[in-house]
Specification:
The complex is a heterodimer of chains A (400) and B (297). Helices cover 39% and strands 17% of the residues of chain A. The longest helix of chain A has 33 residues. With 400 residues, chain A is of the alpha/beta class. By secondary structure, chain B is an alpha/beta fold. Chain B has an eight-stranded mixed beta sheet, with helices on both faces. The mean pLDDT of chain B is 97. The chains are: A alpha/beta (400), B alpha/beta (297). The interface between A and B is large, with 39 and 43 residues. Strand 9 of chain A pairs parallel with strand 2 of chain B, so a sheet runs across the interface. The structure holds thiamine diphosphate and magnesium ion (MG). The site of thiamine diphosphate has 18 residues of chain B, from helix 2 and helix 4.
Chain lengths: 400, 297
């Protein structure tokens, strides 16, 4: 699956660099951003690209994340490709603006380095920054490694700018585990990226005195319901577009990410774990060692959280006896967001137990032992042993 | 100097909008758009002006119009301008029309950021001295003593206890190319300032007194008169800060403030002591204005 079709420049870079280099290749005309750990390298690299003449763009060093997204919205509405990146508190501060980006159908691309939100304040990985943004109308994709970060920034523009979609998209990468960790990454060839991603030309909404229009009108109840429906239709259309872009990218660059989800050793699997973000890499190894011991376990990698891959999950879980869903965030009073969504997606399609695992909140390491415990409980569950709906893994004061 | 008579007949903020009769904000928009003309993009935050000029599917502005949110007018205008430059349309005027609440309170951070970066935009604050769109709540630009729905007239407190925030001086502290105040009662002065702002580059800030019949509790027909009295009493200063030089454009007559205050329902509860406080405030403001002229010559 991961074989290289084109041998271009491979460099050992951080996830933040990958996110910035992807943007460099996409040639945005305006970058507006505000620094926050662990996203800071991204904005620093973007500033360097411009200072060194590698990128011809405006860099707006705005005074807040609220203003960063506002500037991107205004510039994108005027008619240019934009870029920003944030994390944690910065994303929370942007919240209000995110609805506008989606409501105005502006294909803004934004890497989010997933970091925990105060309180208690921390800087390490948790998905409780992006998960609460699930209802804003943004597409969301979670990355497993630095190569996927770079590849997805490029693909994100292609998906978001597709006329059938025209919605903004977050490319999510785990704090420190990717953002500050170096891995060899194929940095792609600019000419090939240009051929894959043509320049942005807005067709429907732009601010041009020779063709005046209103963008962002006050709307009475007679109109807003239809606007919501259109956003939902765009989100649904994104499913197909993501598939097409995945294929085209695989064809041109040799890496096939599978689309909305990816699967690993699912043939004949009796139980499976679904993961998102970097835990997927750990889980691949654990699957291998369980398989080596003759245990029929498999892995589903949740890539896109929005749109949520319901159909794909129904298909992928056929024949399983139990499914576990890993989350790095909790919706208090309910459970992990992916677990909630997965149960909703599978309802009426399967009778198997679907159990939730919480691990790694606040940036705690999720070890192979932790993941092994998840698979052990799933194998027990498949044999009819009971377990709670949601299990807290590696948490002091909680029975394992 | 262009007079009202010499302004183009053509309007770019047209009739059919839904502002109250006598709305000072609507007069600001109409005059300003005659000066800026068709090669302009406007930005509007949440405010009366957004609602009365743009309710889908209608719009009173004949130029491209963007609304994003309430507190980000300055940065949105800057984003538009930079994008237009990138598209090779650097001759387009980008103008934000924002209320006093959207400027002096919730939008001050974005305003300061854009001013510090000297973004190439024109920012017009139409100052009706309260949050009118949400039902006349106080802003930091509401004057001392004024009744609003959040500074009610009660038995312990009556009206606003604080004096008005001086946003033009905050903007002067950013040392931007142009800061000016104007009043709808002095259109020739206002037009001159709009033309100057249009001709300059960089961050330009205009604050225009825009009386509001609903919030000030006065007859629609009295709005221009009130705007004139505000200047004649010295309550509203017509000033300019241009390339580092501070000028008061008109020496007030210093007519008694109570003539102005008595003409408005929002001040009708004021005691003689309150009125004296306001008269003293005018005096000290004038002394500061004179001192500023000496400092920024
Ligand atoms: C973040 C946010 N908070 C509050 C509001 C509600 N709101 C809309 S307009 C407005 C007051 C506007 O006052 P001002 O800027 O003075 O303009 P005016 O309506 O007086 O012309 C308020 C509080 C909002 N739209 N957004
Ligand atoms: Mg107001």
């Amino acid at each position: 699956m991961m074989q290289m079709k084109t041998q271009t420049e491979k460099k050992v870079v951080t996830g933040d660099y990958a996110a910035a280099h992807g943007a460099l290749l996409a040639r945005p005309k305006l970058i507006a951003a505000y620094p926050i750990t662990p996203q800071t390298f991204i904005v620093e690299h973007m500033s360097e690209f411009i200072a060194d003449g590698k990128l011809d763009a405006d860099y707006m060093a705005v005074e807040s994340e609220h203003s960063a997204m506002s500037a991107c919205i205004a510039a994108e509405a005027t008619g240019v490709r934009t870029y920003t990146a944030t994390s944690s508190q910065g994303l929370a501060l942007m919240h209000e603006t995110l609805f506008v980006a989606a409501g105005l159908h502006l294909p803004i691309v934004m890497p989010v380095v997933n970091r925990t939100l105060a309180a208690p304040i921390g800087i390490w990985c948790e998905h409780n920054d992006t998960m609460p943004q699930r209802d804003t109308g943004w597409l969301q994709v979670y990355c497993e490694d630095n190569q996927e970060v770079l590849d997805m920034v490029i693909q994100a523009y292609k998906i978001a700018e597709d006329e059938r979609v025209l919605l903004p998209i977050m490319v999510n990468l785990d704090a420190f585990i990717l953002s500050h960790t170096v891995e060899p990454v194929d940095l792609l060839d600019q000419k090939m990226v240009d051929a894959f991603l043509p320049p942005y030309k807005p067709k429907h909404a732009y601010l041009d005195p020779s063709d005046p229009m209103v963008v962002g009108s006050f709307a009475p109840p007679e109109y807003i319901m239809e606007a919501r429906y259109q956003t939902e239709m765009s989100m649904q259309a994104a499913r197909e577009v993501i598939g097409e872009v995945t294929e085209e990218f695989a064809d041109k660059f040799g890496r096939d990410y599978g689309g909305l989800i990816d699967t690993y050793r699912m043939d004949d699997a009796e139980v499976a774990l679904m993961t998102l973000g970097t835990v997927t890499g750990t889980a691949r190894d654990v699957v291998d060692s369980f398989r080596a011991n003759g245990k029929k376990v498999g892995l589903i990698k949740l890539r896109f959280f929005r749109p949520f891959p319901a159909r794909e999950l129904i298909e992928a879980t056929k024949g399983l006896k139990a499914l576990g869903v890993y989350d790095r965030a909790i919706s208090f009073g309910s459970g992990g967001p992916s677990w909630i969504e997965t149960r909703h997606a599978l309802y009426g399609h399967t009778d198997i137990p679907v159990t939730g695992f919480l691990a790694g909140l606040g940036g705690r390491d999720v070890t192979p032992e932790n993941v092994g415990m998840m698979f052990d409980s799933l194998l027990g569950l498949a044999k009819g042993q009971g377990m709670p709906h949601v299990s807290w893994i590696g948490t002091r004061g909680v029975e394992p | 100097m262009t007079t009202v008579k010499e302004l183009p007949v053509q309007d770019y903020f047209t009739s059919g909008h839904t502002a109250c009769p006598g709305c000072g904000g609507a007069m600001v928009a109409r005059i300003a758009m005659k000066v800026f003309g068709p090669n302009t993009v406007v930005y509007h935050p949440a405010s009366c002006m957004l609602i009365f000029s743009s309710t889908y599917p209608n719009n009173a502005f004949k130029v491209p119009f963007l609304h994003v949110l309430f507190e980000n007018s300055a940065v949105c205008a800057a984003g538009i301008k930079r994008a237009l430059n990138r598209l090779g349309k650097s001759d387009v005027n980008v103008v934000a029309f924002a209320g006093d609440g959207g400027t002096a309170d919730i939008g001050l951070q974005a305003l300061s950021g854009a001013a510090e970066r000297n973004e190439d935009i024109i920012y017009i604050m139409y100052d009706n001295e309260a949050y009118m769109n949400t039902g006349i709540q106080r802003s930091s630009s509401t004057p001392f003593g004024a009744w609003t729905t959040t500074t009610p007239v009660g038995s312990v407190h009556a009206g606003k206890v604080e004096f008005k925030k001086d946003v033009p001086r905050i903007m002067m502290a950013h040392d931007v190319p142009y800061v000016a105040t104007a009043s709808i009662a002095y259109p020739t002065d206002f037009i001159k300032k709009l033309e100057k702002a249009k001709a300059k580059k960089g961050f330009r800030y205009l604050q225009v007194l825009a009386p509001c019949p609903t919030g000030w509790k006065a007859e629609s027909s009295k709005m221009v008169e009130l705007a004139r009295m505000a200047v004649e009493t010295g309550i509203w200063t017509l000033m300019e800060y241009e390339d580092g030089k501070y000028t008061v454009n008109r020496t007030p007559k210093f007519s008694p403030v109570q003539d102005y205050l008595k003409a408005q329902g929002r001040f009708k509860h004021l005691t003689p002591e309150d009125i004296k406080k306001i008269q003293d405030w005018v005096k000290s403001k004038w002394e500061k204005d004179k001192a500023l002229e000496q400092v920024y010559k």
